[in-house]
Design a protein that fits this description.
Helices cover 28% and strands 17% of the residues. The chain has 4 helices and 5 strands, in the order E-H-E-E-H-E-H-E-H. The protein has helices at 18-25, 58-70, 82-86, 117-127, and strands at residues 6-12, 38-40, 49-53, 76-80, 108-110. It has a 5-stranded parallel β-sheet with strand order 2-1-3-4-5. Strand 3, helix 2 (58-70) and strand 4 (76-80) form a beta-alpha-beta unit. The radius of gyration is 14 Å and the shape is globular. The two termini are 17 Å apart.
């Protein structure tokens, strides 16, 4: 489906910003995410994929749902970091859900606190089915 390029919108659902630092590191010349045809966009309306970080907090759950519905079909959702995958240290808290999959459907999970840039690139390539599982 997304063979040639992938436009990604990163949504912070309540993270500590550790995962965001690693996403920014993907854009430097060392990792160069754009060589794979993957680009970060500013609006979910221009995106093919949502990259969600952090456990979905009560305050940001609505924003996540709105961003998900604003993304045109076909779309994919990637949960980045332990908090997005399972809630991490914030799981079973009154203020959060236990992972992004409790709010929106998730296609790929990239665990780690925070995951290294190489792991994020590998997760993108798995989502695009460019590497064998």
């Amino acid at each position: 489906m997304f063979r040639r390029s992938l436009h990604v919108r990163e949504i912070d659902a309540g993270s500590c910003n550790g995962c965001e630092w690693e996403v920014v590191a993907l854009l430097n010349p060392v990792h160069d995410l754009q060589r794979f045809g993957i680009d970060i966009v500013a609006s979910p309306r221009h995106a093919d994929c949502l990259l969600v970080t952090g456990p979905p907090t009560r305050n940001l759950e609505t924003a996540l749902i709105k961003g998900y519905h604003a993304t045109p079909e076909p779309k994919m959702v990637i949960a980045l970091g332990t908090c997005a995958c399972s809630g991490g240290i914030f799981s079973n808290s009154y203020a959060t859900k236990n992972g992004i999959d409790k709010v929106v459907p998730v296609d790929v999970y990239i665990p780690g606190c925070p995951p290294r840039p190489q792991a994020i690139i590998y997760g993108f390539l798995l989502a695009l089915e460019r590497v064998q599982k």
